[in-house]
Amino acid sequence: MSAILEYFTLFDFFIGAALVGIFCCGLLDREMN
Length: 33
What we know:
The relative contact order is 0.11. The chain is 94% helix and 0% strand. By secondary structure, the protein is mainly α. The radius of gyration is 14 Å and the shape is rod-shaped.
């Protein structure tokens, strides 16, 4: 059970990092243009 929990935690962290990266890139693009 703990292994599954660990997997989902890493998965959620990966999704969160991707969303933050995309959001930051969007803000930078908006400021550049």
